[in-house]
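Today's session is about reading a structure prediction critically. Students often jump straight to the picture, but the first step is always the sequence itself: look for stretches that repeat, for charged clusters, for runs of hydrophobic residues. Only then move on to the predicted structure, which in these notes is written as discrete structure tokens rather than atom positions. Here is the chain we will use throughout the hour.
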Amino acid sequence: MKNEMINNRLLISGLISAILAALIFCLAAGSALAEADRPESGTLIRESDMAGRCQLDIINNASDDLVAYLCTMREETVRTAVFIRGGDAFNLTGGEDGSYYLYFQQGESWNASRESFEVNARSSRMREPLLFQTISTADRIQYS
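Below is the predicted structure for this chain, in token form.
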């Protein structure tokens, strides 16, 4: 009887260990899949047709990822959208002269098919519009 109880305890202990190992494996696999679906900084979410020479440095000081949307001020059409990981930065090039709004979506777990974050999603916009301008002088061309 005593041996049977010991065997049952060992069996239960082994089952619990196997279940915990399977659970840890599933959690690790899910985390790895989520990371694999996470775009790199600089991934264009909306392709750009801009061919200007102005540039914009976008710095994401937050821990959450973001997508920055550069939109024309008049029509508010998206000219380009770029993914930037938390704590990373990106230099957006090709900006054409004009006034633009810069919108942001921030969060975790980017869903590419929906073009939105699934966890802690929030949106914002810079208060002031951005002005991209090409200035020609006698000795150089300056881009803002």
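Discussion point for the tutorial: The two ends are 85 Å apart (CA to CA).
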